UniProtKB/TrEMBL annotation:
The keyword Hydrolase does not apply. The chain crosses the membrane at residues 20-42, 54-73. This is Putative Dipeptidyl peptidase family member 6. One of its GO terms (molecular function) is serine-type peptidase activity. GO terms for biological process: proteolysis. Residues 541-743 form the Peptidase S9 prolyl oligopeptidase catalytic domain. It comes from Glarea lozoyensis (strain ATCC 74030 / MF5533). PANTHER family: PEPTIDASE S9 PROLYL OLIGOPEPTIDASE, PEPTIDASE S9 PROLYL OLIGOPEPTIDASE CATALYTIC DOMAIN-CONTAINING PROTEIN. Keywords: Membrane, Transmembrane, Transmembrane helix.
Amino acid sequence: MSSSTALLPKDRKKTDHTLVSLQFIVSVYLTGSLILIANYDVEQNQIGWSTVHFIRGSPFFPFLAAGVQWLVLIPNNQSVVPGRFEYYFLDPEVEGWDNASASIMAFAGAANFDFKEVHTNASRPNPTSDTEQDEAEIFLVEGRPSENGRSTILSVSKKGEDVEILPKEYTAAGKIHEYGGGAAFVPHGGRNIIFNDPKTNLVYNLDVSSKSVTEVVTADPSGKVLKYADFHAEVGTGTLAVRETHFEDGTEVRNEIVVIETSSGGASKSTVVVTGADFYSHPRFSPDGKRVCWMQWNHPDMPWTGSELYVADWNDGNLLQGKYVAGKTREQAICQPRWAWDGSLWFVNDPKGIWNLYKWDPTTDGVEEVVLEGYQDVEVGFRELKLGNTTYIQLTHTKWVIAYCRKAVNGLIVYDTVTKDVTELHTELVYVEFHGLARVSDAEFTVIGSTAKTPPALYLIDITKPIEKQLLKSSASIPLPLDIFSPARSISFPKTHGNAGTAYAIFAPPANPDFRGIEGTRPPLIVSIHGGPTSHESPALDLQAQYFTSRGYAYVHVNHTGSTGFNRAYRQELNSNWGVKDVEDTLSCIDYLANEGLIDRTRVGIRGGSAGGYSVLQALVSHPKVFAAGCSLYGVGNLKDLGAKTHKFESHYLWDLIFPPDASDEDKERIMRERSPCFHAQRIESPLVLLQGREDRVVPMGQAVEMESVMRGLGKDVRLVVFEGEGHGWKRGENIRRSIEEEEGLWGRTLVVGTARL
């Protein structure tokens, strides 16, 4: 048998129909090359028949040829794609199905939103005045897969009502470093929004009242591509921004800090104020507009391996000599510098091996640690992959709201600068978005976050009653049945492969209230490896994982050596060992789950995107007997080629990850070949699916094409699917859905009981 579910209905009944919704009952019979479908309309009490032909090469053929007995077509009455049917391949034993998985698939496709940034125009309170502040407005930058990945701007009220204020012809997104971030900026007390449109690479001003858009920065007349992001301004200043310049002649991309100034006549100009380093982020004016801070770093560092913090005086549109404050090349990593209202400069650094808060006093030129009593083991900073991160904010003159991370789980605390008290906010949130916090009032703030049971959402939280967090907007546009979700839990396990130690993961067992596992079996396992590799997964609700747990699969995210959310030592342990220790930790995780009786170790599939896709290929090459199948999403197959062709931001990232510090040129050539899966594809014994965006500039499409060509030349089972108009990850709803369907087909023919290893 071949199937994409490993569940039986809890109350089995001998019947020839399958309940799929309140309105339709469908029966399916296979006769030769025809599928006969019986449709029973409950309301009309009528039965109708239709037929579906299948041919070799159609989406149905691999399943029908393998002996599938049932195919359910679910009418798409959710109106995600009008007139389209959702199809699911079910086990021959399964005689019923529910709407839950259909809802999850609909959510994972075109019916969801991607919350990117939250902003408010809250004014700073005047400590010498009792004048009541104006009500702050909340603005949300929202990605829409249903609109080809367009990002728009919404005005959201405290009652949870939202209105789109960005005209349809515009999109608000950053593209610097290819990963973007810092797309928009809202001045304190202002009713205008500065944003970048990646379609034109121009900067615009959105008037909130009239919803009119005007150009702030025009196209470069010489033909250079100028990208802007990470904006900031104060009253009476211009607008600071990070600018990335791409040259037509192939000259290396240049990153700088500029100030954008608009004259009384409306004309604007951009002037470079900081240049010379390879990269910049977080240019910020002090509240009085007299100083500027920024962070910078140079190759071969990434911002989370070594970066520096600088300040300089700002005088009449000119930035004076920069002064070093903190950080250290190759040894300390700065995150999120932020001016306090009293003129001190707060920032995150890790000189003690863990990201903690510090502050610089301009009157003494001294730096001191902000000690969060009882939370010295947590990380306050997050990797600076994108621009504009905001995970701690000032709420009053004495109170700060801070998002922290303890072993890949986020939480929120309030820190009082006078009493030094630290108060946990019990919100149930386990994940906070990188640009997820914004002040609303002295007691309120907004946060983009997820719980273990609810998808990403925008909440309003009052620090006096945080448990009553108010939902302003959910990223799910259709109702999701909470009773079918499998609560994910953090686990730790001993490293049984490679060096001794402990590694971590997020595990979710199969769960569905209407179905049970097949008697006498343990569930198959899907192993997911996160990208980065300097990243991590949290126990927040993951709809793609839940789609599979609701269908009988166990699902685990491995937070292998090198992951964030723990400490610097754990991150750096992957150095020189990418493609080795990440795979070893994955094997150790499988050992642990199997020994605990939670999974069937003979039915394990592995999937991952980007760096996780590389780990997938490495796992299939180095341990071909362990995995029944693999799916690499925009993963790396040839390290040398990637190093030569990837974008500037990550062009030196590989060297720390794969080379020892003292490696000779000869050693580097050998290591790159040894750890490039495309040169060892003959070892792969399992089916492999490669999913790739044609416009990907981070991991170019040639990586997947080469891997597919090599495997096909060796007679291996391989399938390459190219997504048109997509880059490094999917933004369009139809492609998100197609990606899940491709994975489901792979797991259905390789992991379900009775399927043959092809």
